[in-house]
Amino acid sequence: YVNYLNVMQAYRLKLPFGIAQVGKAFRNEITTSNFIFRTREFEQMEMQFFVQPGSEDEWMEKWKAERWDFYLQLGLNKDSLRFRQHGPDELVFYAKEAWDIEYQFPFGWKGIEGIHNRTDFDLSRHAKYSGKDLSYFDEATRQRFIPYIIETSAGLTRTLLTVLVDAYGEEPERVVLHLHPRLAPIKAGVFPLVRRNGMPQRAKQIYEMLKPHFTVFYDESGSIGRRYRRMDEIGTPFGITVDSQTAQDDTVTLRDRDTMQQVRVKIDALKEELEKRIND
Fold it and tell me: What three-state secondary structure class fits 164?
C-alpha cells in the first residue's frame, strides 16, 4: 500500500492496475507446531489490485478464475483443489468478501492462497494517518475516489509443498515424481542402451545438441531400467535412448515418464518434439 502512490505517479498508471511482489514475510506466531502452515518466517507471493469502487465484484470473480487457473497450469489435480468462502464468523471487519483456495493434502484440506476484497480500508487508513492524499482522479468521469483493493496472497513455500505432494507417487516397481514438464528441473535424460557399438558417442552428440535448449542429463551407468527409474524419481519427464536401430535410421526411442510408453523419433525432430510435449 505504501508504494501505491509512487507506482501510480511514476508510471502514470490508470485504474485498474496491480502491484505484485515476492519476498519474506514475518508473523508473530505463538504456536509454530503446524508444519509449514504456522511459521514466523515464510516466503509469500502477494498482489494488490486497485479498482474503481463498484467494479470490485467483477474483478473479484476474474481474479478467482485467474488464480484457480494458475494452479491448474502447475499441473495440480483439479479434484484436489477447492474454493472455500470465509463465513461471517471469520471474515475480517474491513473485508467485503474473502475466499481461500485449498488443497487436499494427505493430512486434510489446507489453504494455499487467499483472495480478498479489502474495500478502500487500507488506503483510507494510510491516508488518514500519513496525511497523504491517496485518492484517484478519473479523468473520464471527473470523479475522485479511494480505490478498492482486490488482494491475492499465496504462500510460496506452501505452493512448493503442494506441487511436490501432488506429483509424488509410489508404484510397485518405482517411485515417480509426476511434475508437469514445465516445472521439471531436468527435461530429458539421454542414454546409450549399452556402452559399445558407438552408442555412447552418438548419445553424447544428442546431449550436446539438446543442451543449449533444455536442461538435459547424460547417463550411461547401470542398466537402462535403473537409469529410467532414477530419472522417474526426480521428475524427469522424458528419456531418450540410443539403440542399435539408431545407426540404421537416425531414430531414438522417446520414453514418457508417466505412461512409460516409447515411440521412435527422428534425431532431427527431437528438439521440436520436446518443445511440443513440454508446452502441451
Answer: helix
**What is the pTM for the complete model shown?**
0.88
Instruction: Please give the Cα distance from 121 to 125 (Å, whole number).
Output: 6
- The mean per-residue pLDDT over the stretch 232-242 comes to 97
Grid cell locating 89: 464468523
Q: Which of 128, 143, 168 is the last residue of a domain?
A: 168
Contact 136, 125 (CB under 8 A): no
Q: Which three cell numbers stand for residue 191?
A: 542414454
Cis peptide before 16 (omega within 30 of 0): yes
Residue with cell 505412461: 259
Q: Which three cell numbers stand for residue 173?
A: 516397481
Q: Which long-range contacts (CB under 8 A, 24 or more apart) does 134-140 make?
A: 134/4, 134/5, 136/8, 136/15, 136/50, 138/15, 138/52
Average pLDDT estimate for 19-27: 86
Q: Is 54 left (phi over 0), alpha (psi -120 to 50) or beta?
A: left
Shared-domain flag, residues 150 and 90? yes
Among the candidates 126, 147, 168, a domain finishes at 168
